[in-house]
Amino acid sequence: MDEWEENHCVTFPWMEERDDVVSAVVERSPTDGTNKDSKQTDLNEKNVVQTDQSVADAPRKPQPFNIVRIKHRSITGKGRQRLFPKGGGWGFFGWHVVRATDTEIVITEGEFDAMAVAQAISTLKKDHDMYKLPVVSLPNGASSLPPGLLPRLERFSKIYLWMDNDESGHVAAEKFSRKLGIRRCVVVRPDQNMQDPPKDANDALRHRSVKGHKLIIDMLQKAKQINHSKLSTFADYRLEVMNLLTRPRSVISGTPTKSLPALTKITKGFREGELVVFTGPTGAGKTTLLSQISLDFARTGAPTLWGSFEIKNPLLMAKMMQQYHKDGNLSLLDEEKLEHVADQFNALPFVFMNFHGGSNLSEILDAMEFAVYQYDIKHIILDNLQFMMSRESGRFSSKFDAQDSAIESFRKFCTDKMVNVFLVIHPRKEDDTTPLQMASILGTAKATQESDVVIILQRVEGSTYIDVKKNRYDGQLG
Prior knowledge:
Elements: E1 9-17, E2 39-43, E3 46-50, H1 53-57, E4 65-74, E5 81-84, E6 104-108, H2 111-121, E7 135-137, E8 158-162, H3 167-180, E9 185-187, H4 201-205, H5 212-221, H6 234-246, H7 261-267, E10 275-279, H8 286-299, E11 304-308, H9 313-325, H10 335-346, E12 350-352, H11 361-375, E13 379-383, H12 386-389, H13 399-417, E14 420-424, H14 446-450, E15 453-460, E16 463-471
Helix pairs in contact: 2-5, 8-9, 11-13
């Protein structure tokens, strides 16, 4: 959505302390639905966006904080929100109340959650060990802990992570614990035996069975570190198990491909921790399809990493921009409109690896690990496996052994880092009058055994279609 529209909104500022020049940024969307007529004026050498003449004329007292960015969120649905200014940096809501002497902090998934926890903490007496414990919220939900914010958290000896009590919240809490340090992070969750457990902190504040303030403090005090990555108890998977037992498998449980509804209907989306093997004959359109799938991921806000070893990044990006635009050939647009499309594409959460041609597998895995840490990557596209094998064959007795080792590495990466990886593997050369099968994938059976999903882009006698040959999540094929 590029045009502004009227909504009743809550405004959440990201504020930072400053010592010298004071500036505040306030933004208004005009009644015509756009922000093109907003006027910025200089008042007393302070940067202020003028929204109302009475406000502009009012005397302003110097403030100790700089409003660096604002989130406008509609009260009718959290999916309807805007960040202003566009393309600005990231911040924590509530950071302005964090003191330099604080050594502990609570991080919640959303702004209302942060306010709920802060309200509960404000009722504590001075002798309580959580008195004035600061609370901040992530800038953009459970998938967002931008790298630029990590240095701010280095000084804290204890970090309370309060994510939503759902699958994505549990995954985010574990991921952030490992990113920030397991030994200093504790995860806040409701007691597993609690009836009607709250979904989040805001829900806890309004809980009927017990005073909300008391419940929030109690949950904070019972927060625990996550287990060793290779050790689990039933409690760790209780929510996921209950969902599997009570929720029909027709429900989408992963990131959907909205432009390919038939694929989503079969796979139920693509989940973190899944390895997807993707194949198809040369010239069938594998890169085009993967570009579309990755655009669908990015449009949902899921950070996506691209590794294109056959097509250089500028060519790939140009192709993806054209698919993103949809409305006609980009080369026919004037410069202003083309720049507008480029700005829109730039806002999507894509990261691209700078490999081309034959590449070292260990360097690729290292880049993937860094990207997951820095950008909270959820989906990775690797096109294709054969380009990663050219430098590995000398270490193995055969190219198939090298390929099996690589597939094993990617399988482990998916599981350990909880990311979804699409791995392109070329098929064997076969008669193009018959559909490809799982046995058509080049190499041994390792690829299909280790994968959670196998997708073949079929091209048979001029007809091209997507064929799901394996779906470990619920077994539906087609």
